[in-house]
Amino acid sequence: MKRVHSLLLFFTFLLLLSAGAGADQKQLRFDLDYARFRTSSDFVYLEIYYSIYRDQLQFVPDGDRFRADFRIDSRIFLKDSLVVRDTLHNVTIVDSLSQVTSSQRLADLSGIIIRPGEYHLQVVITDIHTKKSGLIETDLQILPIVADQLAMSDIQLASLIEPFKGKTKFVKNNYRVIPNPNSIYGTGAPVLYFYSEIYNLKPNGDKNQYRSKYLLLDGNGNEIRALQDKLKDKPGSSSVEIAGFNIISLHSGIYYLRVEVQDVDSDEKITAIKKFFVYRPDDYRNKTVSNTTKFSPEDYLNSPQYQTYDTMDEKDLQSEFSGARYIAAANERKIFKSLDLTGKRNFIKRFWLKRDDNLSTIQNKFMAQYLNRLKFANEHFGSGKPGWKSDRGRVLLIYGKSDEIERIPNSSDTNPYEIWHYFNIQGGVDFIFVDIRGFGDYILVHSTARNELQDYDWQRWIRKQ
Questions:
Q1: Most C-beta atoms within 10 A of its C-beta, which of 185, 268, 361, 432?
Q2: HEC profile of 106-167
Q3: Whole-structure pTM over 0.70, yes or no?
Q4: Tens of pLDDT, residues 4-33
Q5: 354 and 308 together in one domain
Q6: Are 415 and 326 contained in the same domain?
Q7: Are residues 252 and 303 in the same domain?
Q8: What is the rounded distance in angstroms from the CA atom of residue 47 to the CA atom of residue 110?
């Protein structure tokens, strides 16, 4: 019954998603999540994450620009007593209303120091101009983080993690961690990022190492693949686990990320697990073909499309697999690197077979389309390096060919730049690339897609210095 209930929830979510964030709704729709971190022996540091779709807000004129204002009110109750109240005021500004799209989410967080216990959380987000609001209520079970044995924080799912030297509310341990409260990945958000902290490692042991292992589980808790299994040197009594994995090959559904840590010196072990969702719209379009197939794995691997690899040399194999790094798991890259020529040939065949999303035909359409995009990227976006390494190459390989491209040439005042429009991803998204240095290497400076670089003052990169 638990699996059926989870699937019902997932498909209910799909119905809500298909309705569109910007639909005419009486209430604001937003997402909520939270994670615990260590602060002291008697308290924990609780982060509460929020995100709201930008196009739900009312933008009003503000000089020659437009602004929207919203308030986040969070209350934590212990039985009937209010123990925490936190209020955040947010402002978002645009030059033009055309910059507001249905795919944009605004993220924020509250940081609260609280005793372990069982609480009730109530969050209300209110549009200041329309007075429209949304409410989420949930029970909180705040477990203690022990001080005398190996321990771990909760897993925080993120839309982006990057090194950062400045100070903002999103920075932890010199990383900027942008939360992803809805825990949804897939088309338009192909990389699952996560952050967690490890506590009470035994430093200065004989080996002074710990092992971290990341596992991907399906909705029933069955292991799908190992994402990482690595020995690491202890930086001290605590450490940080940060990673990002491309999950675009996963079909729509419910999944779990499992993080296992073992102190090699003390042999202590600790585990954390986090649910996430994958949603790819194409999984629900034109699915009239039966999932059954008359072909065996050997039929695919011995077909002309795969036999090409039987004569490939190691250099060409490495070149192709390097270009597939955006869809390869970390452990797959590690395994491929360790293999001899025959092993690499067999591995890359099965690598592509595993990503074939239509086994009713002998032809692997996904593989053919990806390799065609890789060839195009290397031929057109190189500029002194393999084209797949460029920003335009990465976007092409992950999102596919854009529906429309605006190319603005060099002028006396501005650098040349391109705007790529995707009309069928996340309700329509844009990617803006600028040739800042003048050498033909176009850098991504802004995108309206989820989990991509967003800089709403991107026009400054166009202006010549």
A1: 185
A2: EEEEEEEEECCEEEEEEEEEEECCCCCEEEEEEEEEECCCCCCCCEECCCEEEEEEEECCCC
A3: no
A4: 444 445 545 554 444 444 444 568 999 999
A5: yes
A6: no
A7: no
A8: 6
